[in-house]
Amino acid sequence: MGSTEEDTTTSKPTSLYDAASSTEPLLFKPTTGSAYPSPPIEEPPQSGPSESDPTQSLQISFNYGPRPFKDLPFLILFLLFVLCTFAFGIFSIFHRNDNYSNVSAFSYDSNSTSCVQDTSFLSSQLWVSETSFFALSSSSLWTYLVWTLVITSVLSVPICLLLLFLLKHYTKQIVYVLLPFFIIMPVFFDVYWFVACTLSSSCSDAFPLVYRILVLIFILLIVGVIVWIIVANWHRIELTVRIIGVASDALSRNLGLFLVIPLLTVGLLAYYASIVVFLVFSRFNGKIVAKESNGEYTCVWKQDSWVPAYFTLAILTMLWSLTSMVEAQVYVTSGTIAQWYFSKDDTKPHRSIRRSLRNAFGPSSGTICLSGLLVFVVRVVRAAVDSAREEDVPGIVNLVLRCCVNALMSAIDFLNKFTINFAAITGEAYCTSARMTYELLRRNLLSAVFVETVSTRLLAGVIFVLSSVYAIAVCAILKGVSDLGVNMYTVAALAWVLLILVLGFFVHVLDNVIDTVYICYAIDKDRGEVYKHEVHDVYFQLPISRNSRSSYPSRTLDV
């Protein structure tokens, strides 16, 4: 097994790549307590680097040792947000006013100059609500919908595992067989909807012939764009197939991620459920007061003044928690895959997922919170910029401001691209990881940071086709065993949405694996070593393919 704590005095193997690129120094000096071994103090040769560059012998690899806590201020700030949200939420539960939902049962009493409750009105309203609920619960539509979604949820697990197995062993066959269905499926649904809507009197009345033709043409134009994308990227299909195969092999050797990553999502949902409960009960904090309007008094609900501020705090906490959890999942995935990559044999490292979880929610939790905060701010600012663009506010100042904001957001995206992957490998702080990632890629002729986007598009097409086939099967089964009529299309559509969400989550994890293996390949190239020959055989073609074509379309993050 490849050790990550090699003695830096050991001579490096002969580089398989450009020797000059592997000896170019980093831009920073290692600090005390760094995750890397300190280089020996030697008298530099006259023609070598100056004494201000002691990082020339720095070796980057996975840090298995104890890691110090990094970016603690952001962890403390995040915990402060969470504690305030839960503290005020618990207070709202015990301080609630149960009369919130019964405002209409109160009337103004001129004798006491206050609002009093009419109990008979309350009991009648409760009886009507319970009757409506039980009537709704007995609907056959809900029964079939619930059972269909439950069965889909259960089947999604073996479907994901089967897809991973097929992508690992039969990537080329799967891609080339399903590629024509990227076109056939949208055209089929488009024509089927047009014919079915034309034959249905209710649909024909709701959608006139002109609108149906416009929808038909619009979908066909989208299909034309898909065809153009496939043709324009056809020369990259073979390389993309190999990239997906390598990533699928890496993921198949760490199947525990399929249990850990969904459990983290479930934990986030449980965390969200508690905050939602707090938000619901916070609305109950207030009182019923009399309000005068045109000489008449009515009873209205007056909310406590702190409730709107609590809503803002809770929503911000939820959004920051969401982005931080996504970054934590990327961290755990990257740490686990990196440990597999830097092992000399093909066996899975012992307790690799546990080690990644301990690092993610321990020493690197502040780094994850900072990364999540940056992602959250970028999303909010971009949403605001898009909203301003839709309003079409005139003026050169507004145009320049939008350009500056977009440039800044692109720079942050560039900074954040591989930073969390590198932090999972080394345990360094966020800013240090960003700087070292840039230097690592630049020093090894990979400074134009790019990874294949065709893999994401191909996988998206694959899961679309599989989900569509599943939805057609659900629709056929419901037509044979139920009398739902047109409602079966609604149930099948919801089953399609659920399955494509699960498979989309699988593609997201596979994309993280691709990025992690790319960074590990860059570290290998920097060290002049080869831990995984099959990875080098594939990823080494990325710069070659890009340089061999002046118009090679790759994902380029422009600053």
From TrEMBL:
**Segment Disordered: which positions?**
1-57
- Look up keyword Transmembrane and say if it applies: yes
Cite the record's Polar residues compositional bias ranges. Answer: 10-24, 48-57
Instruction: Indicate yes or no for the key word Transmembrane helix.
Output: yes
How does the entry describe its membrane topology? Multi-pass membrane protein
Report biased composition (Pro residues) as residue ranges: 37-47
- A Gene Ontology cellular-component term: plasma membrane
**Which is one Pfam family of this protein?**
Choline_transpo
Q: Which domain of life is it from?
A: Eukaryota
Keyword terms of this UniProt record: Membrane, Transmembrane, Transmembrane helix
Transmembrane segment boundaries: 72-94, 144-167, 174-195, 210-234, 255-281, 310-332, 458-478, 490-510
GO terms for MF: transmembrane transporter activity
Localization terms from the record = Cell membrane; Membrane
Annotated family: Belongs to the CTL (choline transporter-like) family.
Its function, per the record, reads:
Choline transporter.
Name by which UniProt lists this protein:
Choline transporter-like protein
Q: Write down the species.
A: Gossypium barbadense (Sea Island cotton)
